Amino acid sequence: MIKSLLSVLLLFTSLLIRAQGVGKFEIKLPSAPEGQLLNGRLLLFLSTEEGAEPRFQISDEVSTQQMFGMDVENAKPGQTLAFDSKAEGYPRVAWADIQAGEYFVQVLLHKYETFKRSDGHTVKLPMDRGEGQNWRTAPGNVYSKPVKIKFDVRSKKVLTLNLDQINPELPDPATKQTKYIKYVKIKSKKLSEFWGRDMHLAAWVLLPEGFDQHPEARYPLCLFHGHFPAEFSGFSEIPPPADMDTSAYNARFGIYGYNKVVAEEAYAQYKQWTSPDFPRYLVVEIQHANPFYDDSYAVNSANIGPYGDAIMYELLPEIERLYRGIGQGWSRFTYGGSTGGWEALAAQVFYPDEFNGCFAACPDPITFEAYTMINLYKDKNAYFWDGPFRQTPRPGKRNYLGEIQCTLEDVNRREMVLGSKGRSGDQWDIWQAVYSPVGADGYPKPIWDKKSGVIDPSVAQYWKENYDLMHILKRDWKTLGPKLTGKIHIYCGDMDTYYLNNAVYLMENYLKSTRTPHYYGEVDYGDRAEHCWNGDHTQPNYISRLRYNTMYLPKILKRIETSAPEGADLTSWRY
After folding, report:
1. Is residue 231 within 8 Å of 203, Cβ to Cβ?
2. Which InterPro entries does the entry link to (predicted)?
3. Minimal CA–CA distance to 232: which of 268, 180, 185?
4. DSSP 58-93
5. Domain interval for residue 280
6. What global pTM score does this model have?
7. pLDDT category, 20, cuts 50, 70, 90?
8. Parallel/antiparallel/unpaired status of strands 221-225 and 282-287
9. Does 160 share its domain with 234?
10. 192 and 298 in one domain?
Protein backbone atom coordinates (compact mmCIF):
# COMPACT_ATOMS: atom_id res chain seq x y z
CA MET A 1 0.00 0.00 0.00
CA ILE A 2 2.80 2.37 1.03
CA LYS A 3 4.71 1.40 -2.12
CA SER A 4 1.66 2.03 -4.24
CA LEU A 5 1.08 5.44 -2.68
CA LEU A 6 4.76 6.30 -3.19
CA SER A 7 4.55 5.37 -6.87
CA VAL A 8 1.45 7.51 -7.33
CA LEU A 9 3.19 10.41 -5.55
CA LEU A 10 6.29 10.12 -7.77
CA LEU A 11 4.14 9.97 -10.89
CA PHE A 12 2.17 13.02 -9.75
CA THR A 13 5.41 14.93 -9.02
CA SER A 14 6.78 14.02 -12.46
CA LEU A 15 3.61 15.20 -14.18
CA LEU A 16 3.69 18.40 -12.13
CA ILE A 17 7.30 19.17 -13.19
CA ARG A 18 6.43 18.54 -16.84
CA ALA A 19 3.42 20.79 -16.53
CA GLN A 20 5.53 23.50 -14.94
CA GLY A 21 8.18 23.20 -17.62
CA VAL A 22 11.92 23.89 -17.38
CA GLY A 23 13.24 25.78 -14.36
CA LYS A 24 17.00 25.24 -14.64
CA PHE A 25 19.63 25.13 -17.39
CA GLU A 26 22.88 23.30 -17.86
CA ILE A 27 25.32 24.43 -20.52
CA LYS A 28 27.53 21.97 -22.38
CA LEU A 29 30.77 23.74 -23.23
CA PRO A 30 32.44 23.12 -26.61
CA SER A 31 35.58 21.08 -27.14
CA ALA A 32 38.94 22.85 -27.49
CA PRO A 33 42.62 21.97 -28.00
CA GLU A 34 44.13 19.95 -25.17
CA GLY A 35 45.20 22.07 -22.23
CA GLN A 36 43.19 25.11 -23.30
CA LEU A 37 40.82 26.52 -20.70
CA LEU A 38 37.75 28.59 -21.57
CA ASN A 39 37.15 32.11 -20.28
CA GLY A 40 34.38 34.47 -21.18
CA ARG A 41 30.87 35.72 -20.52
CA LEU A 42 28.03 33.21 -20.72
CA LEU A 43 24.78 34.83 -21.82
CA LEU A 44 21.37 33.17 -21.57
CA PHE A 45 18.48 34.63 -23.58
CA LEU A 46 14.73 34.19 -23.18
CA SER A 47 12.49 35.59 -25.90
CA THR A 48 8.76 35.72 -26.49
CA GLU A 49 9.25 36.60 -30.17
CA GLU A 50 9.58 34.14 -33.01
CA GLY A 51 11.82 35.07 -35.94
CA ALA A 52 15.26 36.50 -35.22
CA GLU A 53 17.44 34.48 -32.85
CA PRO A 54 17.14 35.65 -29.22
CA ARG A 55 20.77 36.89 -29.20
CA PHE A 56 19.73 39.52 -31.77
CA GLN A 57 16.73 40.73 -29.75
CA ILE A 58 18.52 42.53 -26.91
CA SER A 59 18.36 46.34 -27.02
CA ASP A 60 17.64 49.51 -25.07
CA GLU A 61 14.13 49.65 -26.51
CA VAL A 62 10.91 48.71 -24.74
CA SER A 63 10.72 45.70 -27.05
CA THR A 64 13.94 44.16 -25.70
CA GLN A 65 13.89 40.52 -24.71
CA GLN A 66 15.44 39.02 -21.57
CA MET A 67 19.00 37.95 -20.84
CA PHE A 68 21.14 36.80 -17.92
CA GLY A 69 24.93 36.82 -17.71
CA MET A 70 27.61 34.97 -15.74
CA ASP A 71 31.40 34.77 -15.98
CA VAL A 72 33.18 31.60 -17.06
CA GLU A 73 36.63 31.31 -15.47
CA ASN A 74 39.15 28.67 -16.52
CA ALA A 75 36.49 26.10 -17.45
CA LYS A 76 37.46 22.81 -19.01
CA PRO A 77 36.32 22.22 -22.59
CA GLY A 78 33.45 19.79 -22.85
CA GLN A 79 32.33 20.12 -19.25
CA THR A 80 28.77 20.98 -18.26
CA LEU A 81 28.06 24.12 -16.25
CA ALA A 82 24.92 24.86 -14.28
CA PHE A 83 23.72 28.31 -15.28
CA ASP A 84 23.65 30.41 -12.13
CA SER A 85 20.07 31.24 -11.20
CA LYS A 86 21.47 34.13 -9.12
CA ALA A 87 22.98 35.71 -12.22
CA GLU A 88 22.22 39.36 -12.98
CA GLY A 89 19.43 39.91 -15.47
CA TYR A 90 18.22 42.54 -17.92
CA PRO A 91 15.63 43.98 -18.12
CA ARG A 92 14.19 41.83 -15.35
CA VAL A 93 16.81 41.79 -12.61
CA ALA A 94 16.31 38.38 -11.01
CA TRP A 95 15.56 34.85 -12.19
CA ALA A 96 12.51 34.79 -9.94
CA ASP A 97 11.10 37.81 -11.80
CA ILE A 98 10.50 35.82 -14.99
CA GLN A 99 6.89 34.81 -15.40
CA ALA A 100 6.01 31.24 -16.25
CA GLY A 101 5.26 30.77 -19.92
CA GLU A 102 6.56 29.78 -23.33
CA TYR A 103 9.89 31.18 -24.48
CA PHE A 104 12.56 30.69 -27.09
CA VAL A 105 15.81 30.08 -25.24
CA GLN A 106 19.41 30.39 -26.45
CA VAL A 107 22.84 30.61 -24.86
CA LEU A 108 26.10 32.18 -26.12
CA LEU A 109 29.69 32.23 -24.86
CA HIS A 110 31.56 35.45 -25.61
CA LYS A 111 35.18 34.30 -25.43
CA TYR A 112 37.91 36.17 -23.56
CA GLU A 113 41.64 36.21 -24.21
CA THR A 114 44.28 36.65 -21.50
CA PHE A 115 46.51 39.74 -21.88
CA LYS A 116 49.70 40.34 -19.93
CA ARG A 117 50.01 44.07 -20.28
CA SER A 118 53.15 46.13 -19.97
CA ASP A 119 51.71 47.91 -16.90
CA GLY A 120 52.06 44.63 -14.97
CA HIS A 121 48.37 43.69 -15.01
CA THR A 122 46.95 40.46 -16.39
CA VAL A 123 43.41 40.86 -17.67
CA LYS A 124 40.88 38.73 -19.52
CA LEU A 125 39.05 40.54 -22.30
CA PRO A 126 37.26 39.85 -25.59
CA MET A 127 39.74 40.63 -28.36
CA ASP A 128 38.23 42.05 -31.53
CA ARG A 129 38.40 39.42 -34.29
CA GLY A 130 37.68 41.61 -37.28
CA GLU A 131 33.95 42.10 -36.64
CA GLY A 132 34.14 45.41 -34.80
CA GLN A 133 33.72 44.16 -31.21
CA ASN A 134 30.27 42.60 -31.53
CA TRP A 135 29.56 39.77 -29.10
CA ARG A 136 26.67 38.52 -31.22
CA THR A 137 28.78 37.84 -34.31
CA ALA A 138 32.41 37.71 -33.14
CA PRO A 139 34.22 34.88 -34.99
CA GLY A 140 34.87 31.95 -32.69
CA ASN A 141 32.06 32.73 -30.27
CA VAL A 142 29.91 29.66 -29.67
CA TYR A 143 26.16 29.46 -29.18
CA SER A 144 23.23 27.06 -29.09
CA LYS A 145 20.37 26.69 -31.51
CA PRO A 146 17.22 28.42 -30.22
CA VAL A 147 14.63 26.04 -28.76
CA LYS A 148 11.06 26.69 -27.64
CA ILE A 149 10.32 25.69 -24.06
CA LYS A 150 7.86 26.06 -21.23
CA PHE A 151 9.63 27.91 -18.40
CA ASP A 152 8.72 28.04 -14.74
CA VAL A 153 11.18 29.16 -12.06
CA ARG A 154 9.52 26.80 -9.53
CA SER A 155 10.35 23.76 -11.59
CA LYS A 156 13.36 21.57 -10.87
CA LYS A 157 13.44 20.27 -14.41
CA VAL A 158 16.80 20.81 -16.08
CA LEU A 159 17.37 21.48 -19.78
CA THR A 160 20.82 21.01 -21.30
CA LEU A 161 21.83 23.54 -23.97
CA ASN A 162 24.76 22.64 -26.20
CA LEU A 163 27.20 25.30 -27.37
CA ASP A 164 27.61 23.46 -30.66
CA GLN A 165 27.31 26.38 -33.11
CA ILE A 166 30.20 28.70 -33.95
CA ASN A 167 30.44 32.08 -35.61
CA PRO A 168 32.55 31.71 -38.76
CA GLU A 169 35.75 33.54 -39.62
CA LEU A 170 35.37 36.67 -41.73
CA PRO A 171 36.76 37.16 -45.25
CA ASP A 172 39.95 39.13 -45.75
CA PRO A 173 39.00 42.84 -46.01
CA ALA A 174 41.66 43.28 -48.68
CA THR A 175 39.39 41.45 -51.11
CA LYS A 176 37.06 44.49 -51.04
CA GLN A 177 39.64 46.80 -52.60
CA THR A 178 38.85 48.63 -55.85
CA LYS A 179 40.50 51.22 -58.06
CA TYR A 180 39.47 53.91 -55.59
CA ILE A 181 39.28 52.09 -52.25
CA LYS A 182 42.41 50.63 -50.66
CA TYR A 183 42.97 48.75 -47.41
CA VAL A 184 46.02 49.39 -45.24
CA LYS A 185 46.96 47.29 -42.21
CA ILE A 186 50.02 47.69 -40.01
CA LYS A 187 51.36 46.12 -36.83
CA SER A 188 51.55 48.85 -34.21
CA LYS A 189 54.73 48.77 -32.19
CA LYS A 190 53.27 51.07 -29.54
CA LEU A 191 50.09 49.05 -29.03
CA SER A 192 51.83 45.68 -29.22
CA GLU A 193 54.21 46.71 -26.45
CA PHE A 194 51.30 47.88 -24.27
CA TRP A 195 49.12 44.79 -24.74
CA GLY A 196 51.88 42.16 -24.71
CA ARG A 197 50.78 40.66 -28.03
CA ASP A 198 50.66 41.70 -31.67
CA MET A 199 48.15 44.51 -32.18
CA HIS A 200 47.23 46.01 -35.52
CA LEU A 201 45.70 49.17 -36.93
CA ALA A 202 43.95 49.24 -40.28
CA ALA A 203 42.21 51.77 -42.46
CA TRP A 204 40.19 52.22 -45.61
CA VAL A 205 41.60 54.88 -47.91
CA LEU A 206 39.56 56.56 -50.64
CA LEU A 207 41.90 57.63 -53.43
CA PRO A 208 41.18 60.67 -55.61
CA GLU A 209 40.22 60.46 -59.25
CA GLY A 210 43.35 60.58 -61.43
CA PHE A 211 45.66 59.21 -58.72
CA ASP A 212 47.58 56.96 -61.14
CA GLN A 213 47.65 59.54 -63.94
CA HIS A 214 49.22 62.24 -61.74
CA PRO A 215 52.25 60.74 -59.97
CA GLU A 216 53.57 64.23 -59.20
CA ALA A 217 50.52 65.13 -57.11
CA ARG A 218 50.51 65.09 -53.32
CA TYR A 219 47.24 65.28 -51.45
CA PRO A 220 45.61 66.77 -48.32
CA LEU A 221 44.12 64.17 -46.00
CA CYS A 222 40.74 64.05 -44.27
CA LEU A 223 40.39 61.66 -41.35
CA PHE A 224 36.76 60.53 -41.03
CA HIS A 225 36.33 59.21 -37.50
CA GLY A 226 33.48 56.92 -36.51
CA HIS A 227 32.55 53.40 -35.51
CA PHE A 228 34.30 50.33 -36.91
CA PRO A 229 34.02 50.42 -40.73
CA ALA A 230 33.80 46.90 -42.16
CA GLU A 231 34.21 48.58 -45.55
CA PHE A 232 34.53 52.11 -46.86
CA SER A 233 31.10 53.63 -46.33
CA GLY A 234 28.97 55.73 -48.65
CA PHE A 235 30.81 55.19 -51.93
CA SER A 236 29.57 52.98 -54.77
CA GLU A 237 30.77 52.83 -58.36
CA ILE A 238 27.46 51.35 -59.52
CA PRO A 239 23.93 52.73 -59.14
CA PRO A 240 21.28 50.80 -57.20
CA PRO A 241 19.06 48.55 -59.33
CA ALA A 242 15.82 50.13 -60.46
CA ASP A 243 13.82 47.27 -58.95
CA MET A 244 15.58 47.38 -55.57
CA ASP A 245 13.28 46.20 -52.78
CA THR A 246 12.14 49.25 -50.81
CA SER A 247 9.50 47.64 -48.64
CA ALA A 248 11.54 47.79 -45.41
CA TYR A 249 10.48 50.46 -42.92
CA ASN A 250 13.13 52.50 -41.12
CA ALA A 251 11.73 53.24 -37.68
CA ARG A 252 14.42 55.78 -36.81
CA PHE A 253 13.62 58.08 -39.71
CA GLY A 254 10.00 57.02 -40.27
CA ILE A 255 10.36 56.23 -43.97
CA TYR A 256 10.21 53.21 -46.28
CA GLY A 257 13.01 52.35 -48.68
CA TYR A 258 15.87 53.97 -46.78
CA ASN A 259 18.16 51.25 -48.14
CA LYS A 260 17.68 52.69 -51.62
CA VAL A 261 18.27 56.23 -50.39
CA VAL A 262 21.61 55.07 -48.95
CA ALA A 263 22.54 53.34 -52.20
CA GLU A 264 21.59 56.37 -54.30
CA GLU A 265 23.66 58.68 -52.11
CA ALA A 266 26.66 56.34 -52.36
CA TYR A 267 26.49 56.42 -56.15
CA ALA A 268 25.98 60.19 -56.17
CA GLN A 269 29.12 60.58 -54.07
CA TYR A 270 31.08 58.47 -56.60
CA LYS A 271 29.88 60.68 -59.45
CA GLN A 272 30.77 63.83 -57.53
CA TRP A 273 34.14 62.40 -56.47
CA THR A 274 35.10 61.64 -60.07
CA SER A 275 33.73 64.84 -61.63
CA PRO A 276 36.24 67.13 -63.41
CA ASP A 277 36.15 70.07 -60.98
CA PHE A 278 36.05 68.19 -57.69
CA PRO A 279 39.09 68.84 -55.44
CA ARG A 280 41.37 65.85 -54.98
CA TYR A 281 42.27 64.60 -51.53
CA LEU A 282 42.56 61.39 -49.47
CA VAL A 283 39.80 60.22 -47.13
CA VAL A 284 40.72 57.79 -44.36
CA GLU A 285 38.41 55.65 -42.19
CA ILE A 286 40.28 53.83 -39.42
CA GLN A 287 39.65 50.39 -37.97
CA HIS A 288 40.82 50.61 -34.36
CA ALA A 289 38.57 48.13 -32.58
CA ASN A 290 40.10 46.89 -29.33
CA PRO A 291 39.27 44.59 -26.39
CA PHE A 292 36.80 47.14 -24.99
CA TYR A 293 34.87 48.52 -27.99
CA ASP A 294 34.58 48.88 -31.75
CA ASP A 295 36.68 52.04 -31.53
CA SER A 296 39.49 53.31 -29.29
CA TYR A 297 38.35 56.95 -29.11
CA ALA A 298 41.66 57.80 -30.79
CA VAL A 299 43.45 59.06 -27.67
CA ASN A 300 46.07 57.67 -25.31
CA SER A 301 44.46 55.83 -22.41
CA ALA A 302 45.66 54.06 -19.27
CA ASN A 303 43.36 51.09 -19.96
CA ILE A 304 43.34 50.88 -23.75
CA GLY A 305 46.85 52.02 -24.59
CA PRO A 306 48.47 54.72 -26.74
CA TYR A 307 45.96 54.68 -29.58
CA GLY A 308 46.25 58.43 -30.17
CA ASP A 309 49.99 58.24 -30.77
CA ALA A 310 49.71 54.97 -32.71
CA ILE A 311 47.21 56.52 -35.13
CA MET A 312 49.02 59.85 -35.37
CA TYR A 313 52.63 58.68 -35.62
CA GLU A 314 52.40 55.15 -37.03
CA LEU A 315 49.28 54.69 -39.18
CA LEU A 316 48.75 58.11 -40.77
CA PRO A 317 52.41 58.52 -41.84
CA GLU A 318 52.28 55.10 -43.49
CA ILE A 319 49.11 56.00 -45.38
CA GLU A 320 50.63 59.30 -46.48
CA ARG A 321 53.77 57.47 -47.59
CA LEU A 322 51.84 54.90 -49.60
CA TYR A 323 49.40 57.32 -51.22
CA ARG A 324 51.39 60.52 -51.50
CA GLY A 325 49.84 62.54 -48.73
CA ILE A 326 51.33 65.99 -48.14
CA GLY A 327 51.91 64.93 -44.55
CA GLN A 328 51.89 68.33 -42.85
CA GLY A 329 49.49 69.73 -40.27
CA TRP A 330 48.05 72.44 -42.52
CA SER A 331 46.96 69.72 -44.99
CA ARG A 332 45.14 67.45 -42.52
CA PHE A 333 41.53 67.78 -41.38
CA THR A 334 39.29 65.57 -39.29
CA TYR A 335 35.54 65.11 -38.97
CA GLY A 336 32.94 62.65 -37.72
CA GLY A 337 29.69 62.23 -35.84
CA SER A 338 28.82 60.92 -32.38
CA THR A 339 31.83 58.82 -31.34
CA GLY A 340 33.59 60.27 -34.37
CA GLY A 341 32.52 63.78 -33.36
CA TRP A 342 34.22 63.47 -29.98
CA GLU A 343 37.28 61.95 -31.63
CA ALA A 344 37.52 64.74 -34.21
CA LEU A 345 37.50 67.42 -31.52
CA ALA A 346 39.78 65.41 -29.20
CA ALA A 347 42.31 64.82 -31.99
CA GLN A 348 42.35 68.55 -32.73
CA VAL A 349 42.77 69.41 -29.03
CA PHE A 350 45.39 66.76 -28.17
CA TYR A 351 47.29 67.15 -31.46
CA PRO A 352 46.70 70.85 -32.21
CA ASP A 353 49.57 71.22 -34.69
CA GLU A 354 48.76 68.02 -36.60
CA PHE A 355 45.33 69.10 -37.91
CA ASN A 356 44.12 72.32 -39.53
CA GLY A 357 40.48 71.94 -38.60
CA CYS A 358 37.90 69.65 -37.05
CA PHE A 359 34.19 69.25 -37.73
CA ALA A 360 32.59 67.58 -34.73
CA ALA A 361 28.97 66.54 -35.26
CA CYS A 362 26.73 65.43 -32.38
CA PRO A 363 29.86 64.66 -30.31
CA ASP A 364 29.83 62.37 -27.30
CA PRO A 365 29.98 64.46 -24.10
CA ILE A 366 32.69 67.10 -24.62
CA THR A 367 32.42 68.21 -21.02
CA PHE A 368 31.54 65.99 -18.08
CA GLU A 369 29.58 68.81 -16.53
CA ALA A 370 26.93 67.47 -18.92
CA TYR A 371 27.80 63.79 -19.22
CA THR A 372 24.52 63.32 -21.06
CA MET A 373 22.15 64.04 -18.11
CA ILE A 374 24.77 63.93 -15.33
CA ASN A 375 27.12 66.52 -13.86
CA LEU A 376 29.93 64.25 -12.70
CA TYR A 377 31.41 66.96 -10.49
CA LYS A 378 28.28 67.89 -8.56
CA ASP A 379 25.86 64.97 -8.75
CA LYS A 380 26.18 62.08 -6.32
CA ASN A 381 24.13 59.52 -8.25
CA ALA A 382 24.20 58.84 -11.98
CA TYR A 383 20.79 57.19 -12.17
CA PHE A 384 18.55 59.49 -10.13
CA TRP A 385 17.84 63.06 -9.19
CA ASP A 386 17.47 62.94 -5.42
CA GLY A 387 14.69 64.81 -3.64
CA PRO A 388 13.65 64.77 0.01
CA PHE A 389 10.85 62.27 -0.60
CA ARG A 390 11.57 60.60 -3.94
CA GLN A 391 14.15 59.73 -6.58
CA THR A 392 13.43 60.70 -10.18
CA PRO A 393 15.12 58.49 -12.82
CA ARG A 394 17.44 60.21 -15.30
CA PRO A 395 16.44 59.51 -18.90
CA GLY A 396 18.90 57.76 -21.18
CA LYS A 397 17.35 58.07 -24.62
CA ARG A 398 14.53 60.05 -26.28
CA ASN A 399 13.04 60.68 -29.70
CA TYR A 400 12.78 64.09 -31.34
CA LEU A 401 9.50 64.73 -29.50
CA GLY A 402 11.16 64.11 -26.16
CA GLU A 403 9.43 60.78 -25.55
CA ILE A 404 11.67 58.69 -23.26
CA GLN A 405 12.81 55.31 -24.59
CA CYS A 406 14.85 54.12 -21.58
CA THR A 407 16.62 55.39 -18.45
CA LEU A 408 20.34 55.63 -17.67
CA GLU A 409 19.90 52.83 -15.17
CA ASP A 410 18.35 50.62 -17.88
CA VAL A 411 21.26 51.13 -20.27
CA ASN A 412 23.89 50.53 -17.63
CA ARG A 413 22.13 47.42 -16.35
CA ARG A 414 22.18 45.96 -19.85
CA GLU A 415 25.91 46.59 -20.06
CA MET A 416 26.49 45.11 -16.60
CA VAL A 417 24.76 41.90 -17.66
CA LEU A 418 26.76 41.75 -20.91
CA GLY A 419 30.05 41.94 -19.05
CA SER A 420 31.42 42.38 -15.55
CA LYS A 421 34.39 44.68 -14.83
CA GLY A 422 33.41 47.01 -17.67
CA ARG A 423 33.67 44.28 -20.33
CA SER A 424 30.32 44.74 -22.10
CA GLY A 425 31.95 46.12 -25.25
CA ASP A 426 29.35 48.89 -25.23
CA GLN A 427 29.00 52.65 -24.90
CA TRP A 428 29.19 53.49 -21.20
CA ASP A 429 31.90 50.92 -20.59
CA ILE A 430 34.13 52.27 -23.37
CA TRP A 431 33.83 55.80 -22.00
CA GLN A 432 34.88 54.39 -18.63
CA ALA A 433 37.74 52.40 -20.15
CA VAL A 434 39.08 55.41 -22.08
CA TYR A 435 38.74 58.00 -19.33
CA SER A 436 39.39 56.08 -16.09
CA PRO A 437 42.60 55.20 -14.32
CA VAL A 438 43.46 51.51 -14.02
CA GLY A 439 41.86 49.89 -10.98
CA ALA A 440 43.70 47.64 -8.53
CA ASP A 441 42.37 44.57 -10.37
CA GLY A 442 43.74 45.77 -13.72
CA TYR A 443 40.35 46.75 -15.12
CA PRO A 444 39.05 50.32 -15.51
CA LYS A 445 38.26 51.95 -12.17
CA PRO A 446 34.47 52.45 -12.17
CA ILE A 447 33.15 55.99 -12.43
CA TRP A 448 30.12 54.78 -10.50
CA ASP A 449 28.70 51.64 -8.97
CA LYS A 450 26.83 49.86 -11.78
CA LYS A 451 24.06 48.66 -9.46
CA SER A 452 23.43 51.75 -7.34
CA GLY A 453 24.69 54.55 -9.61
CA VAL A 454 26.74 56.15 -6.80
CA ILE A 455 29.51 58.27 -8.39
CA ASP A 456 33.16 58.05 -7.32
CA PRO A 457 34.35 61.70 -7.14
CA SER A 458 38.05 60.74 -7.27
CA VAL A 459 37.53 59.03 -10.62
CA ALA A 460 35.49 62.00 -11.84
CA GLN A 461 38.40 64.29 -11.00
CA TYR A 462 40.77 62.09 -13.02
CA TRP A 463 38.37 62.25 -15.97
CA LYS A 464 38.21 66.04 -15.64
CA GLU A 465 41.94 66.64 -15.78
CA ASN A 466 42.63 64.20 -18.60
CA TYR A 467 39.62 64.00 -20.94
CA ASP A 468 37.09 66.77 -20.24
CA LEU A 469 37.68 68.69 -23.48
CA MET A 470 36.04 71.91 -22.29
CA HIS A 471 38.01 71.88 -19.04
CA ILE A 472 41.26 71.24 -20.93
CA LEU A 473 40.56 74.16 -23.29
CA LYS A 474 39.79 76.45 -20.34
CA ARG A 475 42.85 75.31 -18.43
CA ASP A 476 45.27 75.50 -21.34
CA TRP A 477 43.80 78.18 -23.63
CA LYS A 478 46.86 80.39 -23.20
CA THR A 479 48.94 77.82 -25.10
CA LEU A 480 46.22 75.97 -27.02
CA GLY A 481 44.24 79.00 -28.18
CA PRO A 482 46.81 80.29 -30.69
CA LYS A 483 47.01 76.81 -32.22
CA LEU A 484 43.24 76.25 -32.41
CA THR A 485 41.80 79.55 -33.55
CA GLY A 486 39.69 79.04 -36.66
CA LYS A 487 39.82 75.25 -36.38
CA ILE A 488 36.88 74.25 -34.15
CA HIS A 489 33.46 73.55 -35.71
CA ILE A 490 30.73 71.81 -33.66
CA TYR A 491 27.21 70.80 -34.77
CA CYS A 492 24.38 69.17 -32.83
CA GLY A 493 20.63 68.72 -32.96
CA ASP A 494 18.83 70.47 -30.12
CA MET A 495 16.82 67.29 -29.52
CA ASP A 496 19.78 64.93 -29.66
CA THR A 497 18.66 61.39 -28.83
CA TYR A 498 21.26 61.05 -26.07
CA TYR A 499 21.14 64.65 -24.76
CA LEU A 500 24.57 65.39 -26.24
CA ASN A 501 23.47 68.95 -27.01
CA ASN A 502 23.67 69.77 -23.28
CA ALA A 503 27.47 69.62 -23.32
CA VAL A 504 27.61 71.51 -26.61
CA TYR A 505 25.67 74.41 -25.06
CA LEU A 506 28.27 74.68 -22.29
CA MET A 507 31.15 74.44 -24.75
CA GLU A 508 29.60 77.12 -26.96
CA ASN A 509 29.30 79.49 -24.01
CA TYR A 510 32.96 79.01 -23.21
CA LEU A 511 34.21 79.31 -26.79
CA LYS A 512 32.26 82.55 -27.30
CA SER A 513 34.02 83.98 -24.25
CA THR A 514 37.55 83.24 -25.45
CA ARG A 515 39.95 86.14 -25.92
CA THR A 516 43.58 86.50 -26.93
CA PRO A 517 42.77 84.81 -29.21
CA HIS A 518 39.08 84.33 -29.85
CA TYR A 519 38.30 80.85 -31.14
CA TYR A 520 36.86 82.13 -34.46
CA GLY A 521 35.11 78.85 -35.15
CA GLU A 522 31.50 77.71 -35.40
CA VAL A 523 28.85 76.10 -33.22
CA ASP A 524 25.46 75.41 -34.80
CA TYR A 525 22.25 73.54 -33.91
CA GLY A 526 19.57 71.71 -35.86
CA ASP A 527 16.04 72.64 -34.87
CA ARG A 528 14.30 69.60 -33.33
CA ALA A 529 17.01 67.42 -34.91
CA GLU A 530 17.85 64.16 -33.20
CA HIS A 531 21.11 62.21 -33.30
CA CYS A 532 23.24 62.79 -35.42
CA TRP A 533 22.72 66.21 -36.98
CA ASN A 534 25.89 67.48 -38.64
CA GLY A 535 25.36 71.03 -39.78
CA ASP A 536 23.25 70.92 -42.95
CA HIS A 537 20.07 73.02 -42.65
CA THR A 538 19.03 72.25 -46.24
CA GLN A 539 18.56 68.49 -45.99
CA PRO A 540 16.82 66.12 -43.57
CA ASN A 541 19.11 64.37 -41.13
CA TYR A 542 18.77 61.02 -42.89
CA ILE A 543 20.34 62.56 -46.01
CA SER A 544 23.03 64.82 -44.57
CA ARG A 545 24.44 62.03 -42.38
CA LEU A 546 25.45 60.29 -45.61
CA ARG A 547 27.45 63.26 -46.94
CA TYR A 548 30.33 63.72 -44.50
CA ASN A 549 32.98 63.30 -47.18
CA THR A 550 31.67 66.18 -49.28
CA MET A 551 29.66 68.55 -47.09
CA TYR A 552 32.59 70.14 -45.21
CA LEU A 553 34.82 70.46 -48.27
CA PRO A 554 34.06 74.14 -49.07
CA LYS A 555 35.08 75.14 -45.55
CA ILE A 556 38.18 72.93 -45.73
CA LEU A 557 39.27 74.48 -49.03
CA LYS A 558 38.79 77.99 -47.69
CA ARG A 559 40.79 77.11 -44.59
CA ILE A 560 43.64 75.72 -46.70
CA GLU A 561 43.71 78.80 -48.91
CA THR A 562 43.80 81.21 -45.98
CA SER A 563 46.09 79.32 -43.60
CA ALA A 564 48.60 77.30 -45.62
CA PRO A 565 52.21 78.42 -45.02
CA GLU A 566 54.19 80.23 -47.67
CA GLY A 567 55.43 77.82 -50.33
CA ALA A 568 52.82 75.15 -49.51
CA ASP A 569 51.65 72.89 -52.32
CA LEU A 570 48.24 74.26 -53.29
CA THR A 571 48.28 73.19 -56.92
CA SER A 572 49.53 69.64 -57.59
CA TRP A 573 46.27 68.16 -56.24
CA ARG A 574 44.01 70.68 -58.03
CA TYR A 575 44.22 69.11 -61.49
Report:
1. no
2. AB_hydrolase_fold, Mycobacterial_A85_antigen
3. 180
4. --SSTT--EEEEEEEEEEPTT-EEEPPTTSEEESS-
5. 173-367+469-498+545-563
6. 0.94
7. low
8. parallel
9. no
10. yes
